[in-house]
Design goal:
Blueprint lengths: L1 E5 L10 E3 L3 E5 L3 E5 L8 H10 L7 E9 L2 E9 L8 E6 L1 H14 L5 H7 L2 H7 L3 H5 L2 E3 L2 H7 L1 H14 L4 E3 H9 L7 E3 L7 H15 L4 E3 L4 E4 L1
Parallel strand pairs: 8-10
Antiparallel strand pairs: 1-7, 2-5, 3-4, 3-5, 5-6, 6-7, 9-12, 11-12
Length: 231
Amino acid sequence: MGFLYPVGEVTLTEKNLELSGTIVLFDRDLGVSIFQNYKGYNNLLDDAEWLLERTPQKSRGFIIRPVRKCQKCGVWIGEYDHRGNQINRQEMLFGSNAEIYCAIIGNLARKRFSEKKLIEKFNLENLRKTIESSIIRDFKYYICPPTRFYHSCTQVEKIYNLLVQKYGKGKKVPYSEIAKEIENANPCEDVIVCPLMVSNLFERVLNLNDALKIRKLGELRFKASDNIEIA
């Protein structure tokens, strides 16, 4: 169950609401940042905005903080943008899926999880699949994070398979044709600037090739006369 509150309409510093000392910041440019052992004002808004004031490199994103009320675990989510250090929207979510993320953050605090493991769990795809949050649903990266693009972008493998099926391995194809095939792929809904959709056609091919080689799926080998061999 979740509730979306305009800031100022509802005070979320309710009685018997316990706040976790671990805060996760999900920023469009910075990625995921974790703040542990946080000692603030014991007020969700004040604590979040104090943290934003001290994170000058931020752009826009949201903050997740576990809460507990009447033995129920939940998460508070606060949205911010580039215009200042204020929370624009906030949600309080309880239920089994919210409890999962409470447990993950709790395991980090108890040293059962590493920060790297937590960041893997707190990726945008997992959050969208498991938490009914309009703040998370509306969030977009500006530039696709390198880790996401090189290791988990689903379009990379789809485009490569399409190229192999259409042209075959070992065939030489003009790089402009490869770029057009990339352009025909469905754009990602989670980012504004996708490495596969940049205006420079040559750069699109280079970005795809880098991702293919990192994943060891294949390779686009540049040949003479602006041709590419699909390997």
